[in-house]
Amino acid sequence: MENFLYVDTETTGLDPCRDELLSVSVLDNDNRVLFHSYIKPRHRRKWRDAQKIHGITPELVKHAPTYTMVKKYLADIFRNRKIVMYNAAFDTDFLAESLTDCDSIHCCMLEFAEYNGEWNDYYNDWKWIKLTEAVKKVSPQFTFCAHDSLEDCKATREIWQFLKNRKNTTTETEEQKKSM
């Protein structure tokens, strides 16, 4: 299997023009943690709605590094690497400065949506599935604490490896049929 990095963030909200990072995690294919840290926002001081979801309080990030302090380090980790995120469009908006030299970015959510095969007529596209639901479908025994960036990386890795193993198995079976 190719060597991917799994990346996830937690933020003060959903708007990358206004909101900021609160946590970033990076995991490799072997489940090794390459980066995992709270991030102190430079401008936002409160994020009550987001806090209800992920539990990250202003007190938890008070002594954390800012994104400015870690973005070069993250860029070095990402350089020439294949990055997988569950909702890549969201996370890349917040990590754009660190992702400029990565090899490629893959959206596990979009690939899982296609695998899942449920069509959304309203959006004329495959229906997006929450990370918690997707991981239950591919690995019912897998447990994790959703909305924690490191735990979400682990769940994304579980789904991605399932999709890649399935794709490799399908390709091998098709090649075997052709050679008969």
Number of helices: 7
Order of helices and strands: EEEHHHEHEHEEHH
CATH topology: Nucleotidyltransferase, domain 5
Q: Helical residue percent?
A: 40-55%
Query: How far from one another are the termini?
Result: 26 Å
Major sheet size, sense and barrel closure: 5 strands, mixed
Q: Please identify the structural class as seen in this structure.
A: alpha/beta
Total strands: the figure is 7
Mean pLDDT: 93
Strand content range:
15-25%
Relevant CATH superfamily? Ribonuclease H-like superfamily/Ribonuclease H
CATH class: Alpha Beta
List the strand order in the largest sheet. 3-2-1-4-5
Reported CATH architecture? 2-Layer Sandwich
Q: Name the overall outline.
A: globular
Overall tally of structural domains: 1
Radius of gyration: 17 Å
Oligomeric state of this protein = single chain
Ranges where pLDDT stays below 50 over 5 or more residues in a row are none
Structure keywords:
five-stranded mixed sheet, globular, two-stranded antiparallel ribbon, 180 residues
Explain this structure to me?
This protein has about 180 residues and is an alpha/beta fold. It has one domain: Ribonuclease H-like superfamily/Ribonuclease H (Nucleotidyltransferase, domain 5, 2-Layer Sandwich), CATH 3.30.420.10. About 45% of the residues lie in helices and about 20% in strands. The strands form 2 sheets. The chain has a 5-stranded mixed beta sheet, with helices on both faces. Strands 6-7 form a two-stranded antiparallel sheet. Helix 5 (about 110-115) crosses helix 7 and helix 6 (about 130-140) packs across helix 7 (about 150-180). It is globular. The model has no long low-confidence stretch (mean pLDDT about 95).
